[in-house]
Automatic annotation (TrEMBL):
Keywords: Iron, Metal-binding, Oxidoreductase. Residues 208-311 form the Fe2OG dioxygenase domain. GO terms for molecular function: dioxygenase activity; metal ion binding. SUPFAM superfamilies: Clavaminate synthase-like. It comes from the Eukaryota. Its cofactor is Fe cation. This is Fe2OG dioxygenase domain-containing protein. InterPro entries: DIOX_N (IPR026992), IPNS-like_FE2OG_OXY (IPR044861), IPNS-like_sf (IPR027443), Oxoglu/Fe-dep_dioxygenase_dom (IPR005123). Belongs to the iron/ascorbate-dependent oxidoreductase family. Pfam families: 2OG-FeII_Oxy, DIOX_N.
Length: 363
């Protein structure tokens, strides 16, 4: 088909309305992917450079949270987390207090959801992007230049909890329990991140940085042409912090310098990354880093359970910016204050991207 004959929006609409999802396409045994998923040459050429990367032996930091309450160990852990969040924006945590059996049960429950016939999942395809429960492929399907090879179940957990019966019964208990587990881990890490800035441990909790929570149970099924598309396009998270639990199937990559580094999940570990909001409020002391997911060439699906944490209470002026406690004549603000409206509009007006908001408010 020539470009002149290709009506992208028509094909996007047909795919969305079919409600078959990417997994449905994959399960049908297709040998080639629909054109709406094919990415431009400049994106695909960057994929190819990764396999020959000299960085293949480099890994994101792994931080052991055992002995966290020991006066001897805690300062060392604070230093490790501060350094990892500044230089990598990503790290893995082990001995985080959540049992391995819970991690496995949670992954298996979300896998069971995605393994259902698409007709069952399609009942959840009607919903709002910013609240409640919804199942879809690509939250930016209509906004992006090319679709990516994944489906996901999205549940807004807080500040407005979902109607419990709307959470699919097949994974309801596990998703609700995971909200508590992930929040406990995130709040522990926020204490350490706060201390790393020289602030009181409870500062981020007081600022409601864990009180808006969005759960996404993402499935990256087998892709028959993984060199033509992406599992998830390169982006930074707009939020404060992300806690990610995944199965053993690889695919996540993090930008480090000019190279893309594979994230090899540590068994029993959780992957943590800083979002744009944390970079801004820390006045650039912490960094939100580009990451992406390559399309899955394995027969087994990659499962990624993501919990995004963000503030729930904006300042009375409905604005935000670097925390005043971190500013001084020697360290002036490098970002201007911004409004909630500006922040929301930036994310929901386009496809996934990297730090466009940070660039917009940089002084």
């Amino acid at each position: 088909m020539s470009s002149a004959d290709y009506d992208r929006m028509k094909e996007v609409k047909e795919f969305a309305e079919s409600k078959i999802g990417v997994k449905g396409l994959s399960d049908s045994g297709i040998a080639s992917i629909p054109r709406i998923f094919i990415h431009p040459p400049q994106t695909l050429s960057q994929l190819k450079s990764t396999s020959s990367s000299s960085f293949s032996s480099i890994h994101i930091p792994v931080i052991d949270l055992s002995n966290l309450d020991s006066p001897h160990h805690r300062p060392k852990i604070v230093d490790q987390i501060r350094e990892a969040t500044k230089t990598w924006g990503f790290f893995q945590v082990i001995n985080h207090g959540v049992a391995l059996s819970v991690l496995e049960e949670t992954i298996n429950a979300v896998k069971s959801f995605h393994d259902q016939p698409h007709q069952v999942k399609a009942k959840l395809s009607v919903g709002e992007e910013r609240r409640g429960v919804v199942y879809t492929s690509n939250n930016d399907l209509y906004r992006s230049e090319a679709a990516t090879w994944h489906d996901y179940l999205q549940v807004w957990m807080a500040p407005q909890p979902p109607e419990v019966e709307r959470i699919p019964e097949i994974c309801r208990r596990e998703v609700i329990a995971w909200d508590t587990h992930a929040k406990n881990v995130a709040e522990t890490l926020m204490e350490l991140l706060s201390e790393g800035l020289g602030l009181e441990p409870g500062k981020f909790k007081e600022l409601t940085f864990s009180d808006t929570r969005l759960f996404a149970g993402v499935c990256y099924p087998h892709c028959p042409q993984p060199d033509l598309t992406m599992g998830l396009a390169s982006h930074t998270d707009p939020t404060v912090l992300t806690v990610l639990l995944q199965n053993h199937v690889p695919g996540l990559q993090v930008k480090h310098g000019d190279e893309w580094v594979d994230v090899k999940p540590v068994p029993g570990g959780l992957i943590i990354n800083a979002g744009d909001f944390l970079q801004i409020v820390s006045n650039g002391e912490y960094n939100s880093i580009q990451h992406r997911v390559i399309a899955n060439p394995c027969k087994e699906p990659r499962l990624s359970l993501v919990m995004f944490f963000n503030l729930a209470k904006w300042k009375e002026s409905d604005s935000y910016g670097p925390l005043p406690e971190l500013l001084s004549p020697e360290k002036p603000a490098i970002y201007r204050n911004f409004t909630r409206q500006e922040y929301d509009d930036n994310f929901y007006s386009k496809g996934l991207d990297s730090k466009s908001f940070i660039d917009k408010i940089r002084i």
